[in-house]
Design a protein that fits this description.
20 strands, single chain, mainly beta, globular, 53% strand
Length: 367
């Protein structure tokens, strides 16, 4: 795999010398979380994947201005740094030309993951209905026709790996989207709440997004999105739905999720409510509250709720952000990067519990 990464880097450098016009862009994020639990303070890294992730994480992209190819490298600047990368080739433009309605993207992913196409409008940033492959060397092909339909296939040709993902996304009307996908040997985050070290033989998901504002030509968003994910081996099912809407000044969203398992009579409930205020250009201001892990009489709201907010400002390509949060005992990530999302990160087995009161300052550099 290291040879693949080195090859990607060499290819990127070669492209920059062959093509006179090359665009280079990227993002650099670093911060820390100061957390008070039971009257004791502790400090945690804050990186691009939120609380508990490596600091000083750098993402960089090299692409030609004609859109024929792009190479993205992601790395953590530490002694035991982990480097991942992916290269994409616009085969559709090469075969059919830049004015064609047919698109074809051929990709090579090294030490990274491929997520399925998903119509679910992920306003909370929690990615509850997402399906995704496990780390490995992957080849991907995404074929589309205008904005109407996209079909994605990705897998690992490496001997001993059985990573495979197939998904499709259809947008028949402006404001309407439908998707479905299947992953074999994908990540299993639902199992963390019921079964430890559960094997995973694949998952299926489907989603729909209906934005009435776009469908009937309103001057504001008003929509409903819903998605379902089922893991075959654990027999676990997650259903999530979000109501969202907003105008230029403010947008809001409310998400509810239900997790069930075939062998359990105690489903889990979760919800998240968020508001983002667009009061000044360059200013990021949002608040959020919710709970994750409600299980009937076994878990009470006061044991798992969270509430918090972000304030940030962008000075050109430099962004500063401050998150303040209180969480009773919930795996919630402070989001110091996002202007449009109230909270970010993933709910899963590797989640860092941000229990107690926390303050997270961070800085983002884009180029």
């Amino acid at each position: 795999m290291k040879k693949v990464l080195v090859s990607l880097l060499v290819l990127a450098l070669a492209m920059t010398s062959v093509f006179a016009a090359v665009n280079f862009s990227g993002e650099f994020v670093a911060g820390y979380t100061f957390q008070n639990v039971n009257d004791e303070w502790a400090t945690t890294n804050f990186g691009q994947d939120n609380i508990g992730t490596d600091p000083l994480k750098l993402n960089g992209t090299i692409a030609d201005e004609d859109g024929l190819w792009s190479i993205t490298m992601k790395g953590v600047l530490e002694a035991d740094s982990r480097l991942s990368g992916e290269a994409h080739l616009n085969v559709g433009q090469m075969i059919f030309g830049s004015e064609s309605d047919i698109s074809m993207d051929l990709g090579l992913v090294a030490k990274g993951r491929v997520a399925g196409l998903n119509a679910y409008n992920n306003k909370s940033g929690l990615n509850l209905t997402r399906i995704r492959t496990i780390d490995g060397g992957l080849a991907s092909l995404t074929v589309g026709y205008t904005d109407l339909v996209q079909v994605q296939v990705a897998g690992s040709p490496i001997t001993g790996h059985d990573d495979l993902i197939v998904s499709a996304l259809v947008k028949p009307l402006d404001g309407l989207a439908v998707s479905a996908g299947y992953v074999m040997n994908g990540e299993s985050k639902l199992a963390a709440y019921f079964v430890k070290d559960a094997p995973n033989e694949g998952a299926f998901n489907a989603a729909v997004d209906v934005n009435l504002g776009a469908l009937i030509g309103l001057d504001f968003d008003l929509g409903l999105t819903a998605g379902d994910k089922y893991e075959f081996d654990t027999e676990m099912n997650l259903f999530a739905a979000t109501v969202y809407g907003g105008i230029d000044l403010v947008d809001i969203s409310a998400e509810y999720a239900l997790i069930t398992q075939a062998d359990s009579d105690d489903p889990m409930h979760a919800f998240n409510v968020a508001a983002n205020f667009n009061v000044l250009e360059g200013l990021s201001l949002n608040v959020y509250t919710g709970a994750f892990g409600l299980c009937g009489d076994y878990t009470k709201y006061e044991d798992v709720f969270y509430v918090g907010g972000n304030v940030g400002y962008a000075f050109g390509n430099v962004g500063v952000n401050l998150n303040v949060q209180y969480a009773a005992d919930a795996p919630i990530f402070a989001d110091g990067n996002s202007v449009t999302q109230a909270i970010g990160g993933d709910i899963g087995a590797g989640a860092v519990k941000a229990a107690g009161f926390s303050i997270t300052p961070s800085v983002t550099l884009t180029f």
